[in-house]
Amino acid sequence: MLRQVTHTDRIVTLDYANGATARFHAVWLRDNALDPTTRAPGNGQRLITIGDIPAGLSIGAAALAGDALSVTFLPENKTVTFPADWLAAHAYDRDHDHPIGWTAPGITTWESAIAAPGGDWTAVHTNPAAKRDWLAAVAEFGFARLTGGPAEPGALLKVADLFGYVRETNYGRYFEVRTEVNPTNLAYTGLGLQAHTDNPYRDPVPTLQILYCLENSAEGGDSIVVDGFRAAERLRDANPEGFALLAGYPARFEYRGSDGVCLRARRPMIELSPDGQLVAIRFNNRSSAPFVDIPFDKMEAYYAAYRQLAEFIDDPAMGVAFKLEPGESFIVDNTRVLHARTGYSGAGSRWLQGCYADKDGLLSTLAAMEATAPEAAE
């Protein structure tokens, strides 16, 4: 609750009943005014440009209006009200320093001791609360299982329909993961696969991957997931210089498949935002192209950091393993969580289908559900 408001011609200072203080600049308040001539009532999009705000903008008055702030801007002589809770949620007068490699609020990094999050097929398709919890698990942990689904080809598309759309690639709307005589990708063999993120040679990469089981009677073929953010945290803590090398220089990735397909990307293995937040992990030994963007005198240290990151990723204490049964699936945040599989024999059969989707659709669906049912999210 607001207790007091003071202002100069450029800055408003709010004192809260809990002792907190927050300052807001006049130009920021005017740009974020909530009135219908500044923001479209239906979708909240801004109706003014930065050039529409007077260069000589100042604050003519600022006062409490119940548990809200009322501000009059000059020379427009425009008065706007801001709810106190909205201002508190958007306060920027705070410490902006973060440790390198920090993670955003709402993200929980993990190792093998985690209880794998998941949901039931029927529940997530019929119960909004179950669907919301499943989506929230993907957002927080970067992966979640789904059990009890139909063991029928194409069912994975119904998983994507829960939150968004399939992202079609050169592999099609979805692809088959089973042994092929002349495979175009090592995923289509019975070989074990090191934990990796998919398609690092794309720009942008698909941000979600769904793998759906139709048959799995072969010996082996267990699925494994590893939190790449946790591996990056371990590298940062053990070898900050090596962490900085993998974050500071781009790796190169390449894939040459069927005729007409040659995909290339140049991105760091550990991607950080300008303020040091962990944004993405790209790790895929099979698709790595020669590294040519690291200075000569740093190359050996770069490879040492690369090796150390791989050791953390391969550490059995990091991975969560499970064997999918027909009708079961899992989804991973492909910018964060690596997936792997153990090798499997020719006896029996293993048939999965996979597809890609985009995380913005999942996060949008989750945010909309939480906004319309806040009491259920508590």
Descriptive notes:
With 378 residues, the chain is of the alpha+beta class. It contains ten helices and 20 strands. It has a six-stranded mixed beta sheet with strand order 7-8-18-11-20-9. Strand 15 and strand 16 form a beta hairpin. Helix 6 packs across helix 8 and helix 7 crosses helix 8.
Architecture of the largest domain in CATH? 4-Layer Sandwich
Straight-line distance between termini: 21 Å
Q: What is the CATH T-level topology of the largest domain?
A: Double-stranded beta-helix
Helix content: 10-25%
Q: Unreliable runs, pLDDT <50, ≥5 residues?
A: none
CATH top level of the largest domain? Alpha Beta
Q: Report the biggest beta sheet as strand number plus sense, adding barrel if it closes.
A: 6 strands, mixed
Question: Counting H and I runs of at least 4 residues, what is the number of helices?
Answer: 10
* Beta-strand content: 25-35%
Domain Gamma-butyrobetaine hydroxylase-like N-terminal: 5-87
Family: Belongs to the gamma-BBH/TMLD family.
Domain TauD/TfdA-like: 114-356
Cofactor: L-ascorbate; Fe(2+)
Topology:
Layout: E1 2-7, E2 11-16, E3 21-25, H1 26-31, E4 58-64, E5 68-74, E6 78-83, H2 84-89, E7 118-120, H3 121-126, H4 128-141, E8 143-147, H5 156-160, E9 175-177, E10 193-196, E11 208-216, E12 223-227, H6 228-238, H7 240-248, E13 251-256, E14 262-267, E15 270-272, E16 278-281, H8 299-314, E17 320-322, E18 329-333, E19 337-341, E20 350-357, H9 359-372, H10 374-377
List descriptors.
378 residues, alpha+beta, NE0471 N-terminal domain-like, Double-stranded beta-helix, 2 domains, 10 helices, 24% helix, dioxygenase, EC 1.14.11.1
